[in-house]
Amino acid sequence: MKLENMKMLPLNEVVSLNQMMAGDKNEYVTVFENPFVGTFKFKISTPKLTSWNHKAAEIVGIQHDTKTNLESIFLCPNQFEEFYLRLINNKKIEDFKFQVNHCENKINRWAAVHARYSSLDGFVEGILIDITEQHLQMLELQKLNGELDNFTYHASHDLRSPLTTIMGLTHLAKRETSVDSVGIYLQMIEDKVIRMDVLLKELISVTYNNKSEVNLSDFSFEQEIQPIVNEFKEQEHFVQVILKIKQDRAFSTDAVRMKTILRNLISNAFKYSDPCQTDSFLKIDVRVYSSHVAVQLKDNGIGIEWLCKDRVWEMFYRATTRSTGTGLGLYIVKSMVERLKGLITFESTINSGTTFLLIIPNLFRNEIDFHKKIAIL
Q1: What SS3 state is found at 76?
Q2: Is residue 19 part of a domain?
Q3: How many domains does the chain have?
Q4: Between the CA of residue 105 and those of 58, 59, 102, 211, 373, what are the distances in Å?
Q5: Looking at the DSSP assignment, which residues form a beta bridge with residue 322?
Q6: Is the pLDDT confidence value at 34 over 90?
Q7: What CATH number is attached to the domain comprising 200?
Q8: 372 vs 377: CA distance, rounded Å
Q9: For the chain, which terminus, N or C, has the lower number of CB atoms within 10 Å?
Q10: How far apart are CA 4 and CA 1, in angstroms?
Q11: If phi over 0 gives left and psi between -120 and 50 gives alpha, with beta otherwise, what is residue 129?
């Protein structure tokens, strides 16, 4: 309203109008300085940001003393082009999700933008919301859904296949009159039952890891590794095991998961030893530190193809035609290592062998600190 028109109004109306304008200004400032939502403004013709609040700067990683082109906060140019065209055509845009070109983290930062374009003054005002956590949760959910579909398909197939074979062998055994022939069929049936038992145990391990909390307890690598090695020494052809364990301090972890990880890795070393080698070996080196344990398992087995390196952690993936396993072993290892907040890597050369390096945090110190805090309280 023009000043001369305001002078023609009664004094009480002028005061009321000034109060209303002051209220609108305060409301705008309150919205603009919202600590939870990013707000911004830019000119559609440039388009350069003319103003933004602290939260917007935090979300997209820009400084208040810089002149920023809106396009620069989009990691993907195609996303910016889509956003810009939709804004011009529709005069508004709601819940547009894009990957942020953040100065500190360009991979995992995502935001949602809501904006309106006023053709009268040529400016766009909008809000930004950090959806990084929600986006990562969505990706994790998609991954879990994919794994669930894969799990259901392969589990049902791998369970039905030996059952069908057992049914066929049973019918053949019924027709036999020779005790020796029946014994052969029974041995074949036993082999299939053992395979099913292995599969069911590994399926239980997958479910356990997904559903059970991490339960801490003291863990002795000497007491736990030697029985596993003895078990496979009796079942497989000869592999010389060289075991070195240095544990002069307490180590705390989830015993069930730790034993499962070690068992699967040791099992693979025996299972995929090279039959052409006369001196097959498995070297296990365990070193316990105050912060973590480092376990190295080195063998001279058949090795893993380099092209399969990233896929061996996948559910039901078999890296060699020689594999008689379920394809779940290394998937379970990787999943359990992640639940324990650890790391696992490996190097492998065909016909030369494989070396796994496993690092798991020692939670003993954290547990002591926790109990100290409880005692103080």
Answers
A1: coil
A2: no
A3: 3
A4: 12, 11, 5, 31, 35
A5: none
A6: no
A7: 1.10.287.130
A8: 9
A9: C
A10: 9
A11: beta
With bands split at pLDDT 50, 70 and 90, how would you rate the model's confidence at 250?
very high
Verify cis geometry, omega within 30 degrees of 0, for the bond prior to 77. no
Of the candidates 235, 318, 325, 233, which has an alpha carbon nearest to the alpha carbon of residue 284?
233
Q: Are residues 119 and 147 in the same domain?
A: no
Rounded to 5 degrees, what are φ and ψ at 87?
-65, -45
d(CA 33, CA 101): 23
- Give the strand pairing for 240-246 and 123-130: unpaired
Q: Which residues contact 39 (CB under 8 A, 6 or more apart)?
A: 31, 32, 52, 53, 55, 56, 125, 126, 127, 128
User: Maximum distance among all alpha carbons in the chain?
Assistant: 120
Kindly state whether residues 90 and 223 are assigned to the same domain.
no
Six-digit token string for 302: 């058949």
Residue 234, pLDDT score: 67
pTM exceeds cut of 0.85: no
Whole-angstrom distance, CA of residue 66 vs CA of residue 211: 48
Q: Residue 335: which domain range?
A: 212-377
Which residues, in sequence order, are bridge partners of residue 129?
112
349 forms bridges with which residues in the sheet? 353
125: helix, coil or strand? strand
What amino acid occupies position 288? Answer: V
For helices 255-271 and 329-339, angle between their N-to-C axes, nearest 10 degrees: 150
Closest CA to 219 of 200, 239, 245: 245
Contact between 80 and 70 under an 8 Å Cβ cutoff? The reply is yes
- Token pair, residue 122, equals 């040529």
Same domain for 204 and 288?
no
Least confident segment among 161-165, 190-194, 334-338: 161-165
